[in-house]
């Protein structure tokens, strides 16, 4: 009996040690790490925010378990700056060339955070992605106008419209209603 309980305690201790090692190594990754695996010889255009990339990717947990891959389907289209992918991956996609392959290690706070993405991705998980840029399309001047200036115009219009509505309501409240004035006139005529 003592031997069995001793073995259980040793196994439990080993389990605790192994899980704490894994979680410590995951907690040590605090910054985004980008490794270039393949870079084309000619790289004249690099991606910037606003550009559109078509990428193939394979995402894994640190233990090697694949969480998602685009290799069996069409490439994923990502417009940088639109937050269509996790922030760590989007940051890693800036400054890349068409044909470039990278490996990205993304800390939990730039991935899915404490909540994770159950059941596939546990909370506080560090992720690794291997990414290949299939195509790179630069932002046109019209897209730049729409993406950069149009939101500012809309932000300026909101206070303007609220101010006009406020002035209208103020003038309406300030004006004396016609119905009350007529009723006072009728009362004075009766006397």
TrEMBL record:
It comes from the Eukaryota. Pfam families: FKBP_C. It is an enzyme of class 5 (isomerase). The keyword Iron does not apply. Residues 50-137 form the PPIase FKBP-type domain. GO terms for molecular function: peptidyl-prolyl cis-trans isomerase activity. Residues 1-20 form the signal peptide. This is peptidylprolyl isomerase. It comes from Electrophorus electricus. The gene is FKBP11.
